[in-house]
Design a protein that fits this description.
There is one protein chain. With 458 residues, the chain is mainly alpha-helical. The protein has one domain. 84% of the residues lie in helices and 0% in strands. It is built from 18 helices and no strands. Helix 4 runs parallel beside helix 7, helix 10 packs antiparallel against helix 11 and helix 12 runs antiparallel to helix 15. The chain is globular, with a radius of gyration of 22 Å. It starts with a helix and ends in a 9-residue tail after the last helix.
């Protein structure tokens, strides 16, 4: 019993720096591996042809949409479970976990039907290049119809995060990503007696990696996550719990989905100039994941800490966690900025960049990466909103940044100045995001954090 009490109060008693690092570092490492497999995937696809790389780049909004649905729902599950654990309402935490698993399965079924049916339409709407349409349709159908791995994996990993056991997520994500990296060249190019599958091979490797991660995450939840009872025998959906999950999760889903809309819109604008420009944008998103993924890993460790201590009434631990998270995130982004400014040629050469791609891509990477100066702060503050149950604030910032600024500015710059100016829309949008995030954080600090009456810690 004493051991269980210690586990339940880990997020309320450990020193904040030690707690944040211990919970975030495994996630940061695993997400770096995820970023590596994203890049390796495109590096191998680029060796097929630039059309194949463009097809995978155009499919990127669909992949981010799937992750948005899974991860956004996971934010609700994570924050709500951590809050109930902080309040010592263990049965409610169990109900959140079970209903979260149910929602993941329903989400998968919807995506499998819609994505599998509309893949060809999605690509013909973007381009009339038959090679790109064929490659893209094949890729999108597979990642949609077989997306059970990503939905269930993310859900089970969020349950581990809600109890502070992020180390096991490093194992699940890491082994899933390594499996993908190993299978990519084998299935794409037909090595060791396997048939040459090209883009289909890249999609199949991705799905197998996701399924490996899913099986491991199920095992770790049953074997190691003793704070939660996720047995589904006799389960009945609870509309009230589902509403609570989505009250937090829907703003996050919409917020991340807006990213898919933004990428889709940018691709349409860039395709007015050339498919190479769209390929450059896709390459940028693969490369920037090396910078952003560690910050997202930091977020995954930070959200349950803030949610738990908000439920437990520990104001100082909340503010200390926010401050330290911002410092770490900004530091990571500055390192990323230096790499993009100094090494754009080397980064693009990873993707067998043609002279035309280098001519477009080098200034693009240098301009877009200026947004890194502001992005770390904005990402952390947006996750603070979610952890405190105000995900709508994150949604407001995301809508303003990606729909009200990036796309209109990019279109105007494309029309008036040409391709070379489009990239400036992203740093401009990030400045708007900083201002809006700061205003909303000031409000939530006044309404939710400052009024907390500090309770005595055990």
């Amino acid at each position: 019993m004493e051991q269980r009490t210690q586990q339940e109060n880990k997020m309320g008693i450990l020193p904040v720096p030690k707690l944040l690092i211990s919970m975030s570092l495994p996630m940061m490492i695993s997400m770096l591996v995820q970023a590596l497999y994203n890049v390796v995937d495109s590096v191998f696809v680029a060796q097929i042809s630039e059309d194949a790389l463009t097809a995978v780049s155009l499919a990127f909004p669909v992949q981010t949409l799937l992750i948005a649905i899974a991860a956004g729902t996971g934010v609700g599950i994570n924050a709500l479970t951590s809050r109930y654990l902080g309040q010592k309402e263990f049965e409610k935490a169990n109900q959140v976990a079970r209903n979260g698993i149910f929602l993941a399965m329903i989400s998968f079924l919807i995506v499998a039907i819609v994505g599998g049916s509309l893949a060809h339409v999605f690509f013909t709407f973007q381009t009339d290049n038959p090679v790109i349409v064929n490659y893209g349709t094949q890729y999108m159908r597979i990642i949609s119809v077989a997306s059970i791995g990503i939905f269930m994996q993310i859900t089970f990993e969020r349950l581990m995060q809600s109890t502070g056991k992020t180390f096991y997520n490093m194992i699940t994500q890491g082994l899933g990503a390594i499996t993908n990296i190993i299978l990519d060249p084998i299935l794409i190019f037909g090595l060791f007696g396997f048939p040459r599958l090209e883009v289909i091979g890249a999609a199949v490797a991705t799905i197998i990696g996701q399924l490996i991660a899913l099986f491991l995450s199920i095992y770790f939840n049953h074997a190691k996550n003793k704070e939660l009872d996720i047995r589904m025998r006799g389960f009945r959906p609870n509309p009230h719990i589902i509403a609570e999950i989505y009250e937090i999760g829907i703003p996050s889903i919409i917020m991340q989905s807006i990213g898919s809309v933004m990428v889709f819109g940018m691709n349409k604008i860039l395709l007015l100039f050339s498919s190479t420009a769209a390929a450059v944008f896709g390459v940028y998103f693969k490369l920037q994941s090396f910078v952003f993924m560690p910050v997202f890993g930091l977020n995954n460790g930070m959200i349950p800490i803030i949610a738990y201590n908000f439920g437990a009434g520990h104001k100082k631990r909340i503010t200390d966690t926010i401050r330290l998270s911002v410092i770490i995130a900004v530091g990571i982004m500055l390192i990323g900025l230096l790499i993009f400014q100094i090494c754009p040629f080397a980064l693009l050469r990873l993707f067998d960049a043609s002279d035309n791609m280098l001519e477009i891509g080098v200034p693009a990477l240098r301009i877009i990466s200026l947004s890194f100066i502001f992005a770390g702060y904005c990402i952390i503050i947006g996750s603070v909103f979610q952890a405190l149950g105000n995900g709508v604030y994150s949604l407001i910032v995301s809508v303003a940044r990606q729909l009200l600024v990036i796309l209109p500015v990019a279109y105007i710059f494309a029309t008036v100045f040409g391709l070379h100016m489009i990239w400036w829309a992203i740093p401009i949008a990030e400045i708007v995001s900083v201002l809006l995030s700061s205003l909303l954080f000031k409000r939530i600090n006044r309404l939710k954090i400052k009024p907390i009456k500090e309770v005595e810690q055990i």
